[in-house]
């Protein structure tokens, strides 16, 4: 039972009130009474606007449903379709001839290109690992993954043969990134060092060497007493790459935060990162280990930032949370609470109250997800204005990352950017959420193509290309990140190295990776590709037309899948839903490596769940499958998921009246009615039920 205290007419969960008053406020110069009065004022003014925006989503969806019922199947008259979208206000006039005016942006975001991590805010160890992934050992990343064309390391200590393959790969990388004036790094013996590009400074710290390529650091560690270095002709013990330039500390898709207890845990970790005093202790090999933030790296008179520059991803506009109740007893919008409390925590960084600095440019970086169109982006701008005023911050101290993951945002991206033009520092694409919204928006058009075929559909190609081109046209290059989505398979690094180079080649100066190891490996791509040169080449190109983006991935009318194809699709989706939901509901784990139907571990979060549940709901709606077939798929896959989790002592089987199983079924059978096809309302409902039962 949550205990509440009254603050400025609001009911504040006591755990949240205590955190704010005892931990977040001291040192900021903001008084408790002023904070609570300010929050009450913001909620009083902006909650009605927030609710109206959500109602508009529902109103537009009703009109889309009616149109697609009257015009089933793929779009046959694009002009008429666009006219309809314009008439209902779905499409708006795009602003032309403007450039963003964002100021005071850290170099890691504005003028550097490199990997980006996303990590659940509720896990203290994970957020520390991610923040410390700014620098990573290339030797370690190669030794422990499948990147090398060499036998896996033999158990029982250091495998010299594997080590030799690692060293050879790393030398070839150095030959590519920072070639010598003559000869190869393979033959360098530690003597005179001259680079082919004499403009690259060679910085030394004792015997160690620091080089830079495409703005990224490469540390060459020389230690002839090291087990590896003493066998190396140059004494090289390791090659350290500057890796995760930025990290998103996530309060949204990768967490299960349904009440004040969960929110305070996330806010506490964010505050600890902003103060630099967060630690995490854990058992490893029978020994208790403690993790903390890494120090900056000293090179003669140069001090290199030792940690990722951190964003915090707030919740979108839809959800509410019982951590704060309004005077009428209803829950406060969670996105408003996040804006206030994460900004308050970040003031400790702005004011230099902690051990380290996150933003040396004096900014707070917030990623705002799941916004539908420019009106909602403008609302975020107004919200951040209000928070700045309440906390006494200069205008546009709070920067925003706009995730291009909803169809109405993609179709009006320039107008969305314009709405936050003086604080935007980030746009990106995300296949899964974007596909979920694509399907839900056209739910009544007919059955969607199979999930595996989505990536080849024309709207996806237009979506990815338009995002970069519109970002460049609006002046993001050199001022903000243009990002690409996640590589979801953390154990398949060889495939990542073959495929993910496409992201920097597309003009994106960051892309998401699932682990610090993946960040180190993906960093090599930014040495191979000068992203800012690519952006210059792309800047003069035309933005792909809107028509392709608006092409709906509905199957051709009359198309039939075989019984085997239907069963495969249902089982694949059902397994993915169950594997993720059972951990979310029963254990409160919002993101983890979940084995897929082929037992390949994939990093899953709510975006994956959205696409899988919407796909089955769509096929049910249009009679491609029956409820009996769906139930059979859930039953079969429940047994498989139980077997996949047999080694987890905390796991509860998906049987009987399992709350997790009921949640998974609800996501499908109530999927058509869910707002924008989101999974959060049902997940929160069943997670709260599980917590109450416990």
TrEMBL record:
Give the location in the cell. Cytoplasm
Which residue intervals define the domain Malate synthase G alpha-beta insertion in the entry? 158-187
Q: Which cofactor does it need?
A: Mg(2+)
Positions of the Malate synthase N-terminal domain: 17-77
Q: Which GO terms describe its molecular function?
A: magnesium ion binding; malate synthase activity
Residues annotated as signal peptide: none
One Gene Ontology biological process: tricarboxylic acid cycle
Q: What is its EC number?
A: 2.3.3.9
Which GO cellular component does the record give, naming just one?
cytosol
Output the superkingdom of the source species.
Bacteria
Pfam families, per the entry? MS_C, MS_N, MS_TIM-barrel, MSG_insertion
Per the entry, what this protein does is: Involved in the glycolate utilization. Catalyzes the condensation and subsequent hydrolysis of acetyl-coenzyme A (acetyl-CoA) and glyoxylate to form malate and CoA.
How does this protein assemble? Answer: Monomer.
Name this protein carries in UniProt? Malate synthase G
- The species this protein was found in: Sphingorhabdus pulchriflava
Q: Which gene encodes it?
A: glcB
């Amino acid at each position: 039972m949550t205990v509440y205290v009254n603050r400025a007419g609001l009911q504040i969960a006591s755990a949240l009130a205590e955190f704010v008053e005892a931990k977040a406020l001291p040192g900021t110069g903001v008084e408790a009474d002023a904070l609570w009065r300010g929050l009450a004022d913001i909620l009083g003014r902006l909650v009605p606007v927030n609710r109206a925006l959500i109602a508009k989503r529902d109103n537009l969806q009703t009109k889309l449903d009616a149109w697609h019922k009257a015009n089933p199947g793929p779009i046959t008259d694009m002009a008429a379709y666009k006219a309809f979208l314009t008439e209902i206000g779905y499409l708006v006039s795009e602003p032309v001839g403007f450039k963003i005016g964002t100021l005071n942006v850290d170099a890691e975001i504005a003028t550097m290109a490199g990997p980006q991590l996303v990590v659940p805010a509720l896990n203290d160890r994970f957020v520390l690992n991610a923040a410390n992934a700014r620098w990573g050992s290339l030797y370690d990343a190669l030794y422990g993954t499948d990147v090398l064309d060499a036998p896996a390391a033999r158990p029982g200590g250091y495998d010299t043969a594997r080590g030799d393959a690692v060293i050879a790969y790393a030398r070839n990388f150095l030959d590519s990134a920072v070639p010598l004036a003559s000869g190869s790094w393979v033959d360098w013996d530690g003597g005179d060092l001259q680079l082919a590009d004499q403009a690259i400074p060679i910085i030394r710290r004792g015997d160690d060497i620091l080089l830079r390529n495409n703005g990224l650091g490469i540390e060459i560690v020389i230690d002839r007493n090291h087990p590896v270095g003493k066998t190396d002709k140059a004494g090289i013990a390791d090659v350290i790459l500057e890796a995760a330039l930025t990290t998103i500390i996530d309060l949204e898709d990768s967490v299960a935060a349904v009440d004040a207890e969960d929110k305070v845990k996330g806010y506490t970790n964010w505050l600890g990162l902003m103060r630099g005093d967060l630690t995490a202790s854990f058992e490893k090999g029978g020994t208790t280990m403690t993790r903390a933030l890494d120090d900056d790296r000293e090179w003669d008179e140069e001090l290199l930032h030792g940690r990722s520059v951190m964003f915090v991803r707030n919740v979108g506009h839809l959800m509410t949370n019982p951590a704060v109740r309004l005077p009428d007893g209803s829950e406060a919008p969670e996105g408003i609470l996040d804006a206030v409390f994460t900004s308050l925590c970040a003031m400790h960084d702005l004011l230099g109250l902690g051990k380290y600095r996150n933003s040396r440019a004096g900014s707070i970086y917030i990623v705002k997800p799941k916004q539908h169109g420019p009106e909602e982006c403008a609302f975020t701008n107004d919200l951040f204005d209000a928070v700045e005023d309440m906390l006494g911050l200069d205008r546009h101290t709070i920067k925003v990352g706009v995730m291009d993951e909803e169809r109405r945002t993609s179709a009006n991206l320039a107008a969305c950017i314009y709405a936050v033009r003086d604080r935007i520092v980030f746009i990106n694409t995300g296949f899964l959420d974007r596909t979920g919204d694509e399907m839900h928006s056209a739910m009544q058009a007919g059955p969607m193509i199979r999930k595996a075929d989505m990536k080849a559909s024309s709207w996806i190609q237009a979506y990815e290309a338009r995002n970069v081109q519109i970002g460049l046209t609006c002046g993001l290059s050199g001022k903000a990140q243009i990002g690409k989505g996640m590589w979801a398979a953390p154990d398949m690094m060889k495939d990542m190295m073959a495929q993910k180079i496409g992201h920097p080649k597309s003009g994106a100066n960051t892309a998401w990776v699932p682990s610090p190891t993946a960040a180190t490996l993906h960093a090599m791509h930014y040495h191979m590709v000068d992203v800012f040169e690519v952006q210059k080449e792309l800047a003069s190109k035309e933005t792909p037309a809107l028509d392709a983006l608006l092409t709906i991935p509905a199957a051709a009318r009359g198309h039939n899948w075989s019984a085997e194809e239907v069963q495969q699709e249902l089982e694949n989706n059902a397994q993915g839903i169950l594997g993720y939901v059972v951990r979310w509901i029963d254990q409160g784990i919002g993101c983890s490596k979940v084995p897929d139907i082929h037992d390949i571990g994939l990093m899953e979060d709510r975006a994956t769940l959205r696409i899988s549940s919407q796909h089955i709901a769509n096929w049910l709606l249009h009679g491609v499958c029956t409820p009996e077939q769906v139930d059979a798929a859930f039953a079969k896959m429940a047994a498989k998921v139980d077997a996949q989790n047999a080694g987890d002592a905390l796991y509860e089987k998906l049987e009987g009246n399992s709350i997790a199983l009921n949640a998974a079924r609800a996501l499908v059978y109530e999927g058509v009615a869910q707002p924008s096809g989101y999974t959060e309302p049902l997940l929160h409902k069943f997670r709260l039920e599980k917590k109450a039962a416990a």
